[in-house]
TrEMBL record:
Domain AIG1-type G: 1-203
Cleaved signal peptide residues: none
Taxonomic path: Eukaryota, Metazoa, Spiralia, Lophotrochozoa, Mollusca
Family annotation (Pfam families): AIG1
Top-rank taxon, per record: Eukaryota
Gene Ontology molecular functions: GTP binding
Protein name: AIG1-type G domain-containing protein
UniProt keywords, alphabetically: GTP-binding, Nucleotide-binding
InterPro entries named in the record: G_AIG1, GIMA/IAN/Toc, P-loop_NTPase
Family in the record: Belongs to the TRAFAC class TrmE-Era-EngA-EngB-Septin-like GTPase superfamily. AIG1/Toc34/Toc159-like paraseptin GTPase family. IAN subfamily.
Length: 222
């Protein structure tokens, strides 16, 4: 949610003081960057213990339906720190939901709290666009799981900071970096977004596979 607000330049999505998403249902907001309208959808947490797996899947499907003709980019958000067991399987879960290649070709991994990558940096330093590329590479390299996740995303990964006021030059700069990454990914995909057709085709193939497996099991029991 905090990253969504950074992109929007406004506090549209609800967050708590630790920038943890408070989203209970999909929410769509929009903003303008360089004269272009960007739609941002904040999704409920994948591992919300108050929801069943079916409800989570329903929310994700609703997020897709809220875009037309489909999203140009999925942002998978993680924070600096130890990767949780749940986060390790985030891409696997999303890939199963939206299809491996189609989903991953439209995905960027965003690491938040980039200020924690360089703890020796002076917190009073007003350099809004400080470079942590070396620290980010080390952070990724030191984690086998994170290395795998970044590789699955086609090495598309950037570190940002959501600290400070949403209108601050720091967060406006971070928003511009995300938007630039979006443009680059759109160019890479030749303007083709992840479409509802891709999703429906995936579900059709999954249903065919399910029926074939049921048929095999039935033949084995006869």
């Amino acid at each position: 949610s905090a990253t969504g607000n950074t992109i929007l330049g406004e506090e549209k999505f609800s967050t708590d003081s630790s920038f943890i998403s408070c989203t209970s249902k999909p929410q769509k907001e929009s903003c303008k960057h360089n004269g272009q309208i960007f739609e941002v959808i904040d999704t409920p947490g994948l591992y919300d213990t108050s929801k069943t797996e079916e409800l989570v899947k329903r929310d994700l499907k609703l997020c897709l339906e809220m875009t037309s003709p489909g999203p140009h980019m999925f942002l998978v958000i993680m924070s600096v720190g130890r990767i949780t067991e749940q986060e390790k399987y985030t891409l696997k879960y999303m890939s199963e939901m939206f299809g491996d290649e189609d989903f991953l070709n439209h995905t960027i991994l965003v690491i938040t709290r980039k200020e924690d990558l360089d703890p020796e940096r002076n917190s009073d330093d007003e350099d809004d666009d400080y470079d942590v590329s070396d620290e980010l590479k080390t952070f990724i390299y030191d984690s086998e799981d994170l290395t795998r996740i970044v590789k699955q995303c086609g090495d598309r990964c950037l570190a940002i900071s959501n600290s400070g006021l949403v209108h601050s030059s720091n967060r406006r700069g971070e928003a511009q970096r995300i938007i630039q990454s979006a443009y680059e990914l759109i160019d890479q995909n030749k303007g083709v977004c992840y479409s509802n057709f891709m999703f429906k085709e995936l579900k059709r193939r999954q249903e065919i596979l399910r029926r074939e497996n049921e048929f095999r099991e039935q033949r084995l029991t006869e």
